[in-house]
Specification:
- By secondary structure, the chain is an alpha+beta fold.
- Helices cover 18% and strands 36% of the residues.
- The protein has helices at 29-32, 91-105, and strands spanning 10-16, 19-25, 40-45, 55-57, 68-76, 82-88.
- It has a 6-stranded antiparallel sheet.
Length: 108
């Protein structure tokens, strides 16, 4: 794995043009490690109330506690624009995000 290959469940600072985001990587590690892969991520934000299923609140054990994962804000991230790895979310948080994605996309 290269130094720029993000891993599923990691929170990163991401710069896209003049915008800066904090994102949660959701694509799997095997895909993220492929040459030329453009990982998939969800945007995190602060100050939004958690709505079960579509906004998943980060806990005290996650990077950026109190921020929320916005299930409907999916980005493809150029790995060269990932600036700082802030750590991994907990398994409970990642499971809640997976449930939210399934509900949002109407998947079984």
């Amino acid at each position: 794995m290269t130094a720029r290959s993000p891993q599923r469940g990691q929170v990163w600072e991401y710069v896209q043009g003049s915008h800066q985001y904090r994102v949660l990587i959701i694509s799997n590690d095997e895909y993220n490690e492929l040459p030329g892969a453009i990982p998939w991520a969800l945007v995190l934000q602060r100050g939004a109330p958690a709505i079960p299923g579509f906004l998943i609140e980060l806990t005290a054990d996650d990077p950026l506690p109190g921020a929320v994962v916005v299930v409907a804000r999916v980005l493809r991230c150029d790995p060269t624009a990932l600036r700082h790895n802030l750590g991994f979310v907990t398994n409970d948080t990642l499971n809640a995000v997976e449930r939210g994605l399934r509900e949002f996309l109407n998947l079984p």
